Amino acid sequence: MIAIFTAMKGEAAPFIDYLGLKSCGDISGIKLYSNERYLLAITGMGKINAACAVTRILTLYDDIKLAVNIGTCAGEKTGQTYLINKITDEDSSKDYYPDMLYKSPFDEICLHTSDSFKTDTCFEDSFGPFVYDMEGAAFFAASSSFLSPDKVILLKTVSDSGDPDIVTADYCKKLLAVNAASSIDFIEGIYSLLAESPYKEADILCEEYSTKLKCSEYMRNDLKQLIRFALSCNKDIKSLIESHLPVKNKEEGKKVLADVRQKLVE
Amino acid sequence: MSDKSLLNKPFEHIYIEEGVKDHPMTLQVLARYESSKRIYIRHYKDVFNRKNQNFRAQSMSRSLILAKNTGNLIFKGSDMCQDHGNSRFYYATSVMNCLFDCDYCFLKGMYPTADIVIFVNLEDYASKIRDMLQEGPMYLSISYDTDLLALNKVADLLSFWTDLALKEKDLTLEIRTKASCDVFEPVPNIIYSFTLSPQKVISSYEKHTAGLNSRLQSVIKACEEGCKVRLCFDPVVYINGWEECYNSFMDEVIPQIPWDKITDISVGTFRISKEYQKGLRSSCPMSAVTEYPYINEGGYLKIDNELAAGMREIIVAGLREVKDEKYIFCDSDGSFLGDR
After folding, report:
1. Is the ipTM reported for this complex over the cut 0.85?
2. Hey, what CATH topology would domain B4-333 get?
3. Of A193, A220, A243, which residue sits at a domain end?
4. Number of domains in chain A
5. β-strand B13-17 against B328-329: which pairing, if any?
6. CB distance B293–A264 less than 8 Å?
7. What pTM value is reported for the model?
8. CB-based contact B293 A226, cutoff 8 Å
9. Which of B61, B65, B287, B291 best probes binding to A when mutated, by most A CB atoms within 10 angstroms?
10. Whether residue A146 sits in one domain with residue A56
11. pLDDT tens, position by position, B180-203
């Protein structure tokens, strides 16, 4: 599943429309929309709201494979959508770095985050140009406790150059609608690259034979490793185990494991 | 990962510590990667040491980090590495991580990321080494945490080390590699150390490295140029049909090598610190070499002793026919032939 987090309803609206998401209630005031593939959460503005919402959602939904923060920001080029490659929390001076593994149609830039509105027009520091928002750093910090940094994505569209009063819900909706399709294409491309667990087949076999061999937890770990090894080098571990079944107790199961191990590494 | 066309190419992103942005080595690297995106950072650890990184995903599209090493520059050699009889055995980490992607590599367990760091402040390494040489000759491996020959297309680090070796006669450098190379500078105190593996092992477990034939041609070329050459049959790893695989490998290697020109040989079966096992397996799941049910001896994972002895014997038996035992070192995994 893919989770999209926005701060405001106006930022969420183009994606709710584009993806055909349906309202699915709220959790502690976090409004949720979903379909079978996407969950969109409206976090509210500011770092604390963002961190709390992300933590809440990623704790509740353990099948989320990708977290995306979409929203508006202040910057020099109004209307420009950026993929964020560095985030600086202005309040703590801490920097965060999403992995930049995937080709994107968007220019990249650094994002500065702070809890107050930006009302000046300075968008460059000693490290280079940046855009500015009020959630990004918190979103990344919270998300990366659950997901690796290649699975945390931030897409920001410049809404103003230090004039937050012009950023209404309607304005956000129109602005983000322009790149909604290309944003979702980009997200879908990444999602298609996220592999299923390589251990799926091994886990199923382990489940089956740990019962049949009356394994303790320790023996189960041994069995799991033997199965993974056998599958990785195309050895028929099922026949090896089956030839010893049934076993009466844990002790007999242990002997089977020792024998299977011996035969596998010959 | 199925469609690699969706991935950025390696080093599409280069992270540069603000403090070294004008360093000559930084400028040299950036000149080779003009189109890469540059991201300026405060400290390399902010990128390198991020929590929860996915080595497996990152290794598909590595980033490069250019930084200054302000910590330890030279380390005492590990017990798991062969010292070849050198009591002052050290290794230098001017680079962390490798362009190659060997399934069994300890770097996957040691580092939290697949991204590569090049420490550009080589002048500090030279200074530290000169200080250490005041206390006597030293043997320094400079290619343990990377493959320096392979990396030379990214940053010309070899020139620095070669110049240093030419100036410091008490310094012996070992450059270990799985790359192929056809230009070698013969320096009496540099040992070019080639890892040789069966082609089946290379194809299965040593991604992006040179094929066996290219490695053999590099060995021959280095010998012809008058370089000191070490052969490393290390690690010998488990592979389906290992006996036939390693027997045919030795049959292929033995006739091609100019054995009288080989300085020495090391032989070792795979072993790794237990601490690295988790990282190794998660970065390379379902590879026979990572999933093998190793035995744990004193905190090190090893192939069962009997099997390891059988594997080693195939290599050593072949080598005994062409090289005096005193040049064959097997000490790091329990046995010992070399004469110190």
Report:
1. yes
2. pyruvate-formate lyase- activating enzyme (3.80.30)
3. A193
4. 2
5. unpaired
6. yes
7. 0.94
8. yes
9. B291
10. yes
11. 998 898 999 999 999 999 999 999
